[in-house]
Amino acid sequence: MSIWRVLLSIILPPLAVLDKGCGSIVIVFLLTLCGWVPGIIAALVILNNPKS
């Protein structure tokens, strides 16, 4: 995970997981709508997942 991905996930979480699939984008988008911090946490967890 690069520093640019981390910064992008803090600024715009749904754009950080753009290449991880539609489901990830929807989940992060909905969590970002609920609150900024849950969206950031979800984006960082998805980006840090070694299986994807």
Structure description:
The protein is mainly alpha-helical. The chain has one domain. It is 75% helix and 0% strand. Helix 1 packs antiparallel against helix 4 and helix 3 runs antiparallel to helix 4. The chain starts with a helix and ends with a helix. Keywords: Membrane, Transmembrane, Transmembrane helix. It comes from Galbibacter marinus.
Percent in helix = over 70%
DSSP strand count: 0
Counting DSSP H or I runs of 4 or more residues, the number of helices is 4
Nearest-angstrom radius of gyration?
Answer: 10 Å
**N- to C-terminal distance:** 12 Å
The computed structural class is mainly alpha
Element-by-element helix/strand order = HHHH
How many domains?
Answer: 1
What would you say about this model in short?
Helix 1 runs antiparallel to helix 4 and helix 3 runs antiparallel to helix 4.
Descriptive keywords:
52 residues; mainly alpha; 4 helices; globular; transmembrane helix; transmembrane; PMP3
SSE layout:
Blueprint: H1 3-11, H2 13-16, H3 22-34, H4 36-48
Keywords: Membrane, Transmembrane, Transmembrane helix
Protein name: YqaE/Pmp3 family membrane protein
Subcellular location: Membrane
